[in-house]
Amino acid sequence: MGSPHSDDGGERPVRKQLSKASIEPTPQDSVKENTSGRKRSFEESRDTAEDYHEDGQVRKKRSRESTPEEPQQKQAGSKNESAGPQEVSTPVSSLSRTVFLDAEGQETVFDHTQKTPGLDQPNDLPECDEYHWTRALEEREKLIERRWQDVHHRDKVLQNHEKWYGECVDGFDASKSALKVRSRVMDKRERMATSREKMATQREKAVAIREMLVRIREEKVQKLEHELLEETVKFEPNPSPEPWETSDLESTSGIEGN
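The chain above was modelled as a monomer; its predicted structure follows.
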């Protein structure tokens, strides 16, 4: 198996990382780096296991660990060109770490084995991806804000519908009450009309009875007057003639004789 070290003293060439404005590492690059690191770790453990004797005697263990040397930083033409963190490759024994160099030459070690609370996978994303995560969180916050406004608007619409429904129910109840009152009024009017017809019939009967009584009274009055007249004529004596009426009769009779 070939050694993962290079021929120039175990150091790998320094790869300059460009600024965020140019190129930023993607999650795919981090996944590839993790895969290659796991493969090297597996090969190292297998070679170490082969160093042990079957009878329990331990052979001399080969150590493939090397001391990390000081990373070298390439000199750029100007400080503006070297802006942004620089990534330096590390030996096999330090595959779990990634060293970044900032513009001032200070080292920043990022531990891939450090796990984030609540996550099963190691935090293998470099710090330069914080910009993308921040943007994603901002977009998600905007989406949540829009959804909250949508829910608030729907709540207002439901309140308006509920108010309209309440008005409809009140109007229906009022109409129902009005119909009940109207029905009662119509019943009263019908009863009053029936009573009026009965009263008219009774009035006609009363008028007929009154006319009959008047007629009977007139007949009785006439009958009484006729009876009184007959009684008066029957019991009144014949009056005697007056003296002058007698002399007049005699003179009249003498003249008629001559």
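The mean pLDDT is 66.
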